[in-house]
Amino acid sequence: MPYGKLSTRNNTIAVPFILSMLMTGVVSAISIVAMQGVGPLALAMWPSAWVLSWVAAFPVLLRVTPAVRRIASFIVES
């Protein structure tokens, strides 16, 4: 294992972690800009909105990812 990399067994946590950070960041930014417009207020509000949404999304992704993979296996050829 190269220095600084996680082992492959950590992939089940790393993927939902990264995905939840990216998705909640984008969605919270879109929501705030839609409500406040682009400006200093939106920029000031975004970090707390992102953290709140991420705290909810990450555990949900940890729980639902196995089920989503099973559902996707029905529509994706292996």
What structural category arises from helix and sheet content?
A: mainly alpha
Shape by Cα distribution: extended
Described by strand count, sense and barrel closure, the largest sheet is: none
How far apart are the first and last residues' alpha carbons, in Å? 28 Å
Segments where pLDDT lies below 50 for 5+ residues?
none
Task: Give the overall pLDDT as a whole number.
Answer: 93
> Cα-atom Rg, whole angstroms?
16 Å
Q: What is the helical fraction, as a range of percent?
A: over 70%
H/E element order: HH
Discrete helix count: 2
What's the total count of β strands? 0
> What percent strand?
under 5%
Give keywords.
78 residues; 2 helices; extended
Report on the architecture of this protein.
- Helix 1 (11-36) packs across helix 2.
- The mean pLDDT is 93.
- With 78 residues, the chain is mostly helical.
- The protein is extended.
- It has helices spanning 11-36, 40-73.
- The protein has 2 helices and no strands.
- The two termini are 28 Å apart.
